[in-house]
Structure formats: structure tokens, C-alpha cells
Amino acid sequence: MKTQIEAIKGVIFDLDGTLVSSELNFSLIKAQVGCPAEQDLLDYIEQLPSPYMREEAMNIVHQHELLDAQSAKLLPGVLEAVKALQAKNIPMAIVTRNFDKAATLKLQHNPLPIEMVLTRTEAPAKPDPSALLMIARQWSMPVDNVIYVGDYLYDIQAAHNANMRACLYAPDVTPGYAEQADFVIYAFDELVSLIDNYAEKVRVC
Ligand SMILES: O=C(O)COP(=O)(O)O
What we know:
- Keywords: Hydrolase.
- The protein has 205 residues and is α/β, with parallel strands linked by helices.
- 41% of the residues lie in helices and 14% in strands.
- The protein has eight helices and eight strands; from the N terminus they run ββααααβαβαβαββαβ.
- The strands form two sheets. A six-stranded parallel β-sheet has the order 4-3-2-5-6-7, with helices on both faces. A two-stranded antiparallel sheet has the order 1-8.
- The radius of gyration is 17 Å and the shape is globular.
- The relative contact order is 0.19.
- The site of 2-phosphoglycolic acid has 8 residues, from loops.
């Protein structure tokens, strides 16, 4: 049986560790809010028993995120790749687990020609696919035509939860979960070649 591979017509990016550098120390943040190392930080905060405890914990997270925003820098090759995709009229968006103020600051300090940005303030955090699906809907684009590019397991999971293809950006070490991604890139110029290979025509294998 032939499998049809849909063309890539839209690209959604993760923010931290993909477009910009991040020094968020999750071990430290978890220790400060009392979250067990193996538990997801946001899930842990959400299940805290009182609004006061949730607010206190979230304030700590916000402080770390705002501090991180001061030092975030565009990663190598990002601007060139984004401009190349813009020149090809590929719609682009950003989905991040950051809260809105931190994401806004990071992008103010590191401007990119990408207007649509969804944070955990606007949509449930990854690996929930809601933000990715909202963007595909906004673009009126089938999810098969959209790729999500990120550097972490949650990014792969969110893409697959949205029935999109997942592209892992792994510039340093290739993690074990890389095998779950549909594509792995080690540098940003590879993304442009990837889109070129998949943008023009629907390939059948
Ligand atoms: O703040 C985080 O948890 C990570 O942010 P990201 O989704 O942009 O990688």
C-alpha cells in the first residue's frame, strides 16, 4: 500500500532551546516550589491544594522566567532560517510553555518576523495540542501540512497529539527520545532543506 506524505506548508516553533537560548534551571525551580524531580512542574503546581499555594509557587516560576528573558539570545542560524521560510511564504508561529510576559520579553529582545505566538497564558501547556490546533485552524490548514519544531520530548508529544509531524532540534546531544520524532535536525539550515524537500510536492513512497 502506498503511503502519502503530505507537503509541509506551515511551521510552528518552540521558543526556549529552539529559537532562543534558555538557562531556566528546572531542578532548582522544582526544588524551590517542592515539586518532585520526576513530576511536571506545571502539573504539580496545578494540583496544589489551595489557591494561595498555587499563586506562591507560580510567582517563583514567573520570577525565573522573567530573569531568563533578560539573557535569552537567538540561537545560531535561526534568523537566517526564519527569513528563508518567510521568503517562501511559509506561515510561521510560536508555541511555548513560557507565560506571556516572558515570551514577549524574549521576542522583544530578539525580534523575529513571526507574529503569532501562543503561550501557556492563552492555551493549555504542551504536551496538550490545543495551541498547535488553534494555529492550524487560524491558518485554515490541515494538520498534516504543519510541522512543529522543538528541542524537547514535550514538543514531539504535542505535535503527535495534534497529528502534526514533529521535528526535533538537537544541536548538541541526541536524546533517546529522538527516535520518536519524524525528523531530527542538528542545525537550522537543515530545516530550510527539509521544508524544500517537502514543500513543493506531495511525495508518495
Ligand atoms: O518554559 C518552559 O517550560 C519551556 O519553554 P518552551 O516551551 O519555549 O521550550
